[in-house]
Predict the 3D structure of the following.
Amino acid sequence: MDQIIVQGNGPLSGEIPIAGAKNACLTLMPATLLTDQPLTLTNTPRLSDIRTMTALLQSLGAEVASLQDGQVLALSSHDLTSQHADYDIVRKMRASILVLGPLLARYGHAEVSLPGGCAIGARPVDLHLKAFEAMGAELDLRDGYVHAKAPMGGLRGAVIDFPLVSVGATENALMAAVLAKGTTVLNNAAREPEIVDLAVCLRAMGAQIEGEGTGTITIQGVDSLHGTTHPVVTDRIELGTYMLAPAICGGEVECLGGRIDLLAAFCEKLDEAGINVEQTARGLKVSRKNGRVRAVNVKTEPFPGFPTDLQAQMMALMCTANGVSELEETIFENRFMHAPELTRMGARIEVHGGHARVTGVEKLRGAPVMATDLRASVSLILAGMAAEGETVVSRVYHLDRGYERVVRKLSGVGAKITRLREVGHDE
Ligand code: EPZ
C-alpha cells in the first residue's frame, strides 16, 4: 500500500486551488437518474469516491463520461438497463444509497444494497427509508438489500418530520419528492451547502423547490425533469483542511475559490485561536499571527455549526496550541480514531466517549502513523508538516477518497511531502 512521507519544514507560502465538493458531487451525480436528458456537471473533483459513484451509475446502464482531466462529468440515464445497485459497489461507499430516491421516483422500483457501517459509526439509513415510506413506497429489507416499490401512480407528496438532522436522508427525500405527485415538506431538513447546491441543480432541471438552506424544504412534484449543466460548489471541507495548513505551520496561504459563508463557524474558531482569515477576490487568505495558537473549545454540529468533517483536522491544530481545548463530537459515535495516532507523535489527548481533551505541547515529533478514515488521514499529514522529524502515514487510500492531488497542493506551498507508491499497486 502507498505511504505518504512528511517532514516538518517551517512556514508555508503560496496558494492552493480548492476543488469542487465531493459531498455535493456524490448527490448531484445520482440526479441524472431523474431524467432521460443529459446532465453535465462541471468543477467536479478527481477522487476515488467519484470513480466509485461513476461505476455504480454505469452498472445501472447510465452513461458517465469523464472529460477535461476529470473536471467535467457528462451523464445520461436515457437507456437505463437496471435498478439493482449491487453490494459489491455499495459496500465501498455509503453514498451509494443516494441512487435509491431517484430510482424510486423515476422507475417506481429499485433494489439497493444496504451500505453497512463504516469506521466512524454504524451510520444506519432508517431515516432515508422512513421518508420513502411516508411517500407511499413499500420497502422489504432482505438479503442485505432494500427492495423498494412505489405505489401505483408513483410516489405521493408527504410531510416528513426528520427526528434528527441527516444530510443523506434530506438529499434522498429531496430527489424522490421532485417527481412525486403533490407537495412534499421536509421538516428538520439538513442545511448544508451541498444540499443547497443539489436544490439549485434540480431547479435548473425543472424541479419546484423552496427553502433549501433552511430547516424546511417544500417541493411541488412535477411530471418530468430536463437536463442542465451545473457547476459543483466549492468543497468547504477541503477548504477548511487547507486553511489549517498555515495555521499549524505558520506563514500565509491563499485558498483559491474559498468563501467565508461556506465555513462561518469554522472561521470564527480560527479567529478565536489567533489565526487571520481574510476574504479576497480570489479566495480566503489565511495566516498565523505571531506567537502560538490559542487553545479553543469545539463542538461539532449540523450546518451552520462547526463541521464534523473538520474535527480531526482542528484537533491536529490544538495539539500544539497554548492551553487545553475540549472537542465534543456530536454527529458520529466513533470519530476520534486519529487521537491515538496523534498521541504517537507526542500529543496529549484524553478521549472519553464523544469528548476529547487536548493539552497543547510545544512541538510534535514525527512518527509512523496509520490513517483510519478519510478526514483522520489528512489530520495526520497536517500534524506531520509541523512536527520535528519524519512522519510516515500508511493506508493513504483513505485520503484518495476525498483529497485530490494532496502532495502536489501541499508541496506547492512549501511542505516537504512525498508519496511512496507501492510498485504495481493501482491506487
Ligand atoms: C454526510 O454523511 C457526509 N457524506 C459526511 O461526510 C458528513 O460527515 C455527514 O454528512 C455529516 O455532515 C456525504 O455527504 C457523502 P448524516 P451522511 O446522515 O449523510 C445518523 C466525509 O468525510 N443517521 O447527516 O451519512 C448518522 O448515523 C463524510 O466526507 C441515522 O441515524 O450523514 C449520524 O450519526 C463522512 N439514520 C447522523 O445521523 C439515518 O438514516 C448524521 O448523519 C441517517 C443518518
